[in-house]
Design a protein that fits this description.
Elements (H helix, E strand, L loop, with lengths): L1 E5 L4 H12 L3 E6 L11 E4 L5 H8 L6 E4 L11 H21 L4 E5 L23 H18 L5 E7 L1 E3 L6 H10 L5 E2 L8 E3 H12 L5 E7 L7 H12 L7 E2 L1 H18 L7 H7 L8 H5 L8 H18 L1
Helix pairs in contact: 1-6, 2-3, 3-4, 5-7, 7-11, 8-9
């Protein structure tokens, strides 16, 4: 198939591009960076999903079969509500309108488990979304646009993929920062660490996407994605320290005490607009369970190819290689 990937130069997008090419698909990449590293293996266009004309220019005459939207604003801090909605909602709207213009019937939208918000029990695909963050609300708004697009033509096929926190080599987000703190021997346990954090190794998510590509059918379907087994923060830290060959400090600080001590930084951050590495909000988030269920894709026949421990091992090997090169 000819597949158009918006956001193919990003972390997940680069892995997905390579995987789909290996399966024999033709990829047309689309991203807003000038030197797309994927240009060596596929045709790439420079553009922004907020600019509809640049999408039209990239798709024109390409006979696209499927659009996959990975382009998003997703950082926890430093992104305004308007930016989230401009990209995650209106950018998706532009892609859907272009799909209509060029009679493209298949669409895969990378959403997020952030659409569920805070729930009493681990959310499944049947859980009613109730987002609390601007990011989660903007992703749900994108999903609603996709739902309307499907309603307008019953021959269209769409999938929503809701991943949890994704990690792996080449990723510089949350897991990278945790690994760096452990490697630099600056990590201190706060709280008991018994809260579950659903996570996904990037190559497993990409394999799941390739699996779901063959699952497209008229109408719209939705799949959560996270790896098994589910792990607590304590287990994740222990695995990282094992592959990093570093002993974790035995000192553990009470959560309530640290929250009291760091709460002034939340106020300073709000007043000054400056981001601080340690705030009560970040510590509370780290110590809150973010537990999700992804049984639906497994019932459909998907088998996770890479064990989570192997995923951490590969990530630590990459981390050590970039650290030694600096």
């Amino acid at each position: 198939m000819n597949i158009f990937i918006a956001g193919n130069a990003g972390f997940i997008g680069s892995y997905l591009t390579e995987k789909l090419i290996s399966l024999g698909h033709t990829i047309i990449g689309f991203d807003n960076i000038a030197n797309n590293p994927q240009s060596k293996i596929c045709e790439c266009a420079i553009g922004d999903i907020c600019d509809k004309e640049s999408i039209i220019k990239a798709i024109k005459d390409k006979k696209i079969d499927v659009i996959i939207n990975l382009a998003a604003k997703h950082h926890d801090y430093g992104v305004s509500e308007k930016e989230f909605f401009d990209v995650n909602k209106m950018g998706t709207k532009n892609l859907l309108e272009c799909a209509t213009i060029f009679n493209i019937k298949k669409f895969i939208f990378y959403s997020s488990v952030a659409v569920y918000g805070e729930q009493r029990f681990p959310p499944t695909e049947a859980t009613m979304p109730n987002p609390t963050s601007h990011y989660g609300k903007s992703k749900l708004a994108g999903e609603k646009l996709l739902e309307k697009w499907i309603e307008d033509d019953k021959n269209r096929e769409a999938l929503i993929i809701r991943p949890v926190v994704v990690f792996g080599p080449k990723n510089y987000a949350n897991m990278y920062h945790l690994i760096k703190k452990i490697m630099d021997k600056k990590f201190i346990f706060i709280g008991k660490g018994n809260n579950i954090k659903s996570i996904a190794y990037v190559e497993n998510l990409v394999e799941a996407t390739a699996f779901l590509l063959n699952y497209l059918k008229p109408g719209m379907d939705c799949f959560n994605y996270c790896d098994e087994p589910q792990m607590t923060i304590k287990e994740i830290v222990n695995i990282i320290s094992h592959y990093a060959n570093i002993s974790i400090p035995r000192i553990k600080l009470p959560l309530f005490l640290v929250l009291i001590l760091t709460s002034p930084f939340d106020i300073l951050e709000k007043v000054t607009g400056r981001l601080f590495p340690i705030t009560a909000k970040r510590i509370k988030k780290f110590n809150t369970a973010t537990h999700f269920k992804a049984n639906k894709i497994r019932k459909a026949g998907f088998k996770q190819p890479i064990d989570l421990k192997e995923g951490f091992k590969r990530t630590l090997e990459w981390f050590k290689s970039i650290k030694s090169s600096h």
